[in-house]
Write a structure and sequence with these properties.
Elements: H1 23-34, H2 49-61, E1 65-69, H3 72-82, E2 90-94, H4 100-107, E3 111-115, H5 125-131, E4 136-142, H6 151-161, E5 165-168, E6 176-177, E7 180-181, E8 188-192, E9 205-209, H7 212-222, E10 228-229, E11 232-233, H8 251-282, E12 289-290, E13 303-307, H9 311-323, E14 334-335, H10 348-351, H11 381-388, E15 390-394, H12 401-418
Parallel strand pairs: 2-3, 2-4, 4-5, 5-8
Antiparallel strand pairs: 1-9, 6-7, 8-9, 10-11, 12-13, 13-15, 14-15
Length: about 425
Amino acid sequence: MKEKKIRNKPLPFEFPGANWYGKEEENAAIKVIRNKSPFRYYGPNCTYETEKFEKEFAKFIGTKYALGVNSGTQALAIAMAALGIGPGAEVIIPGYMWIAIPASIIRLGAIPVLAEIDDTFTLDPDDIEKKITSRTKLIVAVHMSGAPCDMMRILKVGEKYKIPVLEDCSQAIGAEIKGKKVGSFGIMGTYSFQLNKILTTGEGGMITTNSLHLYRRADAIHDLGYPREKGRLITKNTPYSLWGFGGRMSEVVGAIGRVQLKKVPKIIKAMRKAKQKIKEGISDIKEIKFRRLIDEKGDTGAFLILILPDPKIAKRFAEEMNKENLYAGLSPTIRVCDFGMHVYYNIHSLVEKHSNSPDGFPWTLEANKESVYSYHKGTLPRSDELMEKSIIMPVPSTMTQKDIDDVIKGIHKIASKLFK
């Protein structure tokens, strides 16, 4: 007789913010369209939704300034450009991240330097110091899979060597460390509002900072390279006459973002509650370890990461979970090492040092001649080992009690088969 599956269909879609879309987002977008003013700086009846979103976002994060942009990728590149990253610079990044991070560094003409992650699945503070050279100009702390990095220790390393720390908070909007939100610790913070994120506008992003100087640089760079006053470009020569990225946020995005921002605490509460119940429900399985959290209360709960005894068991465990339909929407439960371009050696353009131009930029630049690094698998042995024996599953923001019970029951069922 065929064994009955735990579930007949997968768990809900993992898109946290999108799952909470309603009339409020619809009305916000329609208002902008009816006003015929989708451009943030002026229009027939501009209500300055993006400007309002920026102010509300800065207040939410706890920084003086916030700048809306059209994607998380642009947020990274603009922030790095504002910090002066370019040829001759090295930027330390974790081996578990997203392709947009090395892409931003490389497009600016700088060189990414890989560092290990620890059991928080974020940048290992102990390995950063080993990777610092006289060319290191920035450390990027990536709050991966919904949970914060060990910012206190990372900042100490940065302070010791006078290297600024940029926080990428794209997967952890609203995450906290002792009540202080990520994105308010480092020199600058960046965010993505793409569909998979806790706050989503489809596409969009934000940059946060407490530095007026960096805000002004980022503001000019995100636009046409010049600052504005009452929406009009100031084209005279100033210290903020730079080169623009054309990364402005539209009023439709700003309007929807304002609505979504109000929902973030509820979304996080739902994910955190579901994740905590699952962890409590499987805590009796001694062979399963959990990712270490810097602050349990500050975790967004967006992802469940389980550390298994070895890579083979992890692979089998993930396969069995998928057979039982224990995965979220379109995202199969997988080993972390199989998580696409979140893993350094899965990014072929990085591993093979591809270039967008025939001259091999930036790898062939004279300024970068001393920055020669490998990005092949094996570069970060401790990270490789950890990612190979761990599995990851998004925690949907709309899980029911039955969904939670099914995950607990399914993990117990699989564990009973694999840990005999």
